[in-house]
Design a protein that fits this description.
This protein has no helices and eleven strands. It has strands spanning about 5, 10-15, 20-25, 30-40, 45-50, 55-60, 65-75, 75-80, 90-100, 105-110, 110-115.
């Protein structure tokens, strides 16, 4: 069974930095895209950043220049968040579009809280 396990997150003051990591495990044949989404209270889940298997990246306008997504290895993605703002406060979810025993599917992590105090 495929799982996405997130780590990192927590409480930080505005202007600070945090690092989120997401590791995919299970019977995985290939990963097309991995990324991060976030959901603030009362708001819809939104894209933060994604990275493809050939290292092409995509960022939300609100995080460009402050966040950086990268891969530690084929199954682990890291989101480095710098110059954090209170409006970055949200639950951050890892997402993966991958091919496993069930074919090509989309998976979500359990979410990790990021809180930025002003």
């Amino acid at each position: 069974q495929v799982q996405l396990v997130e780590s990192g997150g927590g409480l930080v003051q505005a202007g600070g930095s945090l690092r989120l990591s997401c590791a995919a495990s299970g019977m995985i044949f290939s990963i097309n895209v991995m990324g991060w989404y976030r959901q603030a209270p009362g708001k819809q889940r939104e894209l933060v950043a994604t990275i493809t298997s050939d290292d092409s990246t995509n960022y939300a306008e609100s995080v460009k220049g402050r966040f950086a997504i990268s891969r530690d290895n084929a199954k682990t993605v890291v989101l480095q968040m710098n110059t954090l703002k209170p409006e970055d406060t949200a639950v951050y979810y890892c997402n993966a579009d991958l091919r496993g025993l069930s074919g090509r599917r989309n998976y979500w992590g359990q979410g990790t809280q990021v809180t930025v105090s002003s």
